[in-house]
Write a structure and sequence with these properties.
The chain is mostly helical. Helices cover 55% and strands 7% of the residues. Strands 1-2 form a two-stranded antiparallel sheet. It is globular. The model has no long low-confidence stretch (mean pLDDT 78). It comes from Halosimplex pelagicum.
């Protein structure tokens, strides 16, 4: 993540930049649509809140971050492998 930028409309809102692999972004986009969120940003805010409010699930987020770094180095595991490992919804 990079520096935050204050949103010009609301001093309590900051904008952040996030770099992720296109393949992972495709999974994120598919997920927020399937789960009925109105936007990618809404889904990401929900996921971050959930991670902060339920730290026992932090292992999933840590594994996702590691996987993201591995994808950048062409060493990642597939989304199917992640789903199997964590028992999440299938496509």
């Amino acid at each position: 993540m990079s520096k935050t930028d204050s949103d010009g409309n609301d001093p309590e809102i900051d904008r952040i930049n996030l770099r992720i692999a296109r393949s992972f972004l495709d999974v994120v986009d598919e997920t927020w649509r399937e789960r009925g969120f109105n936007s990618r940003s809404e889904f990401i805010r929900y996921a971050l809140r959930d991670s902060v409010n339920h730290p026992e699930g932090a292992g999933v987020w840590k594994d996702l971050a590691i996987s993201e770094a591995q994808f950048d180095e062409d060493e990642g595991i597939s989304s199917d492998e992640m789903r199997e490992k964590y028992g999440t919804d299938a496509e």
